[in-house]
Write a structure and sequence with these properties.
Blueprint: H1 2-28, H2 38-60, H3 69-80, H4 95-102, H5 104-117, H6 120-125, H7 129-146, H8 153-180, H9 186-193, H10 211-221, H11 225-246, E1 255-259, H12 265-277, E2 281-283, H13 309-314, H14 325-341, H15 343-347, E3 349-358, H16 376-396, E4 405-410, H17 418-429, H18 433-447, E5 452-457, E6 464-468, E7 478-479, E8 482-484, E9 494-497, E10 500-515, E11 518-528, E12 531-536, H19 543-553, E13 563-569, H20 572-581, H21 589-592, E14 597-602, E15 621-622, E16 645-649, E17 655-661, E18 667-672, E19 675-676, H22 686-689
Parallel strand pairs: 1-2, 1-3, 3-4, 7-15
Antiparallel strand pairs: 5-6, 5-17, 6-10, 8-9, 9-13, 10-11, 11-12, 13-14, 14-16, 17-18, 18-19
Helix pairs in contact: 1-2, 1-7, 4-5, 5-8, 7-8, 8-14, 11-12, 14-16, 17-20
């Protein structure tokens, strides 16, 4: 009773603060105390906050359900229009625009503030008045500083710093609870309770709604329920089999996190029901909106296609405005306390089930010198924090007790052949794993004989890599490559290993590749003893800008990373479908990695679960689960993991050969001139021949 009274008092207090904030911001519209050029910034930002307030009121009073589709679309345009498409270039969310109008110091800070405030659309939809209020109060504090004379940049930075510091003990625990507590069911309630034949339900999420979301929802609404159930079953069964193959008892778990993009609610609803039959409640939380919870290396959670990818790219490192050692340590302390508070929920969490999308127009980011960027010291601090946080999470949700699955489907932006491509993708996701299992075993039998693998590019591809393999001591019972047959990693089509770092060397090059939604031209990495020694690309005119781009988005601010995985993709069907429809550049790495050999920099595929016995379908135990970095976990776990894993694929048409070389120098050729030549693998060439 006392706890309930405390919560009611807290809710009443925040309601009063919220109303006072909105009244103050409404009054700003009539004031002229702030001079140009800042007057326009505060007016436009106040307009957005008030619009978010109207959305909160519409949700509270149940008016969204009464609005027509056109009214909802107009409301969504008012909330997101200034950062959608080309409009972003004239928005204060754009650091380039803000700096041009307001000056470098003020522009960067105020662009950060506006971006933080933009989270109000999500908070309004969820009726999270505390989140709206604390951001609104920060806005008022900054506005007040401009009323009489210009404040110093230092004083504004201090306001932001204390906002993050003061509220991280609320924001971080709330974020952890979102990820673990199935009683926080905002999205699941919409998915399972709304009329999914009526696209108006999409606007209840508070996200940007484009033709991708509307088109996907309408398309799925036209499919028979049996097809929807089958799509969901591929996804959920892959999850279940992943636990089975890893020897992990799924029966001890109670929750699963579904991550997806809006528009796929019919499939998600079916997946929720199927997971329930496995004894798992689905947790569906959105991407983080607060800067303190966003991560440059990926922002997990449900989302829509972004109104502007440049907007997302420009704000990847907003933490540069406030990150220091003291705050990093405070965040880590709060994170620890949060997991301790929710440790019972963490203990029964099984891991993520991820639905990815593909088909968006290729994004080549523009270099924005005005955007906030982590200093070298902050980069080191960020790496330290991520390392410590990764270890902390693993203590409460052990890697050897969790698993995952990933699947991908196209969205309407892929073009006029969307429905055909969707049907082809469903087929690819359901290819006969038994056929691939047998063929891939032939590859593994050859690879197990090798001391190393030599990979050579064709034509202009400069790849020349020597990948060292761990040795098999007992060939009757052991193997070094996993036979991947579409469980956690859908679709089928690869064999992979954790390479031995010592002696792994050479050049990895690909003419064009998309990694984590970012495009790279002429990406080249050189390796010495299995670690990245140098890197370059041709995205920008300045070489230093290219190096910075790779360091930030491939190395994730590490000085170097090891080669965590070497794999050979076998899904030639997916490769030919990509060629038929001209969509190779739009495929997610999940499918692209199955369309040629690929190399992953960062952690191995077995990170945090190296000691769990893993077996191939033939009963052999996979012994190559470690490398010289991950082995350090036994001495100093902080040196063992990097909390990232980025796959880089060489397409078949850029490949001259893959050859297994034995210890005596003799060899076995697996691929030559882009075709499989190992006896027993010829079936993989059929899609090439059917072209």
């Amino acid at each position: 009773m006392e706890l309930e009274r405390s919560r009611m008092e807290e809710a009443e207090e925040i309601r009063e603060r919220y109303e006072l904030s909105m009244e103050r911001i409404q009054a700003m519209k009539e004031e002229t105390a702030v001079s140009a050029p800042f007057y326009d910034y505060f007016q436009r930002t106040a307009d957005f906050i008030l619009e978010a307030g109207r959305l909160a009121a519409d949700v509270k009073e149940g008016r969204l359900e009464q609005m027509s589709l056109s009214e909802l679309q107009e409301q969504n345009r008012r909330l997101y229009g200034d950062i959608a498409g080309e409009a972003y270039e004239q928005s204060y969310a754009s650091p380039a625009y803000a700096v041009r109008l307001l000056g470098e110091d003020y522009g960067q800070i105020l662009s950060f503030l506006y971006t933080e405030i933009r989270g109000m659309t999500a908070w309004a939809a969820e009726q999270r008045y505390t989140d709206i209020t604390i951001a609104a109060e920060l806005f008022i504090e900054v506005y007040n500083a401009f009323e009489e004379e210009l404040p110093s940049g230092k004083s504004l930075r201090e306001m932001v710093y204390w906002y993050v510091s003061d509220y991280c003990d609320r924001l971080i625990p709330e974020r952890i609870r979102e990820q673990l507590d199935p009683s926080l069911s905002f999205a699941r309630d919409i998915i399972c309770g709304a009329d999914l034949d009526d696209p108006r339900y999409l606007y209840r999420f508070g996200e940007y709604i484009s033709e991708n979301e509307l088109g996907t929802s309408r398309f799925l609404a036209g499919l028979p329920q049996e097809e929807i159930d089958a799509m969901a079953s591929t996804f959920t069964e892959g999850y279940r089999i992943g636990f089975e193959n890893a020897g992990i008892d799924l029966g001890r778990k109670k929750t699963v996190n579904i991550r997806y993009s809006l528009g796929f609610e019919r499939v998600v609803r079916a997946a929720v029901a199927q997971f329930e039959k496995m004894g798992l409640q689905s947790i569906i939380y959105r991407e983080a909106r607060h800067s303190v919870s966003r991560r440059p290396q990926g922002n997990p959670g449900y989302c829509s296609t972004p109104p502007s990818k440049q907007y997302v790219f420009d704000h990847k490192e907003d933490a540069a405005l406030y990150l220091d050692r003291k705050l990093a340590e405070r965040r880590l302390s709060v994170l620890h306390a949060a997991y301790e508070e929710y440790k019972e929920l963490a203990a029964v969490h099984a891991g993520p089930a991820v639905m990815e999308i593909f088909g968006e127009r290729p994004f080549l980011p523009k270099s924005c010198s005005e955007a906030l960027r982590l200093s070298e010291k902050q980069q080191e601090l960020s790496v330290w924090y991520n390392n410590e946080a990764g270890q902390l999470v693993n203590r409460y949700i052990p890697g050897d007790e969790r698993s995952f699955t990933i699947i991908a489907w196209p969205i309407p932006e892929i073009g006029e052949n969307f429905e055909e491509i969707f049907a082809e993708t469903v087929k690819i996701n359901n290819l006969d794993y038994r056929l691939y299992q047998g063929i891939q075993q032939k590859l593994i039998d050859a690879l197990d004989q090798g001391a190393y693998v030599h990979i050579k590019g064709a034509g202009k591809n400069r790849t020349d890599m020597k990948v060292q393999l761990w040795s098999v001591e007992n060939p009757e019972k052991e193997t070094i490559f996993e036979n991947c047959v579409a469980d956690v990693n859908i679709p089928v089509g690869e064999v992979f290993t954790s390479p031995k770092l010592t002696g792994t060397e050479g050049t990895l090059h690909v003419s064009e590749v998309y990694l984590n939604d970012l495009k790279y031209l002429d990406l080249e990495l050189t390796f010495q003893d299995g670690r990245v020694a140098s890197y370059s690309c041709a995205n920008f005119e300045e070489e230093e800008e290219n190096r910075k781009y790779i360091r930030n988005n491939v190395l994730f601010n590490h000085e170097t990373l090891p080669l965590g995985e070497f794999a050979i993709g076998t899904n030639t069907t997916a490769y030919m479908v990509a060629g038929k429809y001209g969509i190779a550049s739009k495929l997610p790495i999940l499918i692209a990695e199955k369309m040629g050999p690929h190399f992953a920099v960062g952690d191995t595929c077995f990170s945090w679960s190296e000691d769990n016995p893993t077996y191939n379908p033939d009963g052999k135990r996979i012994i190559a689960k470690d490398n010289e970095c991950s082995m350090l976990r036994k001495e100093d776990v902080s040196k063992a993991y990097f909390n990232c894993h980025t796959d880089i694929t060489i397409p078949y048409d850029e490949l001259e050969s893959i050859r297994v070389v034995r210890a005596d120098g003799s060899g076995i050729t697996l691929i030559e001139n882009g075709r499989f030549v190992l006896p027993g693998t010829e079936e993989l060439n059929r899609p090439f021949d059917e072209k």
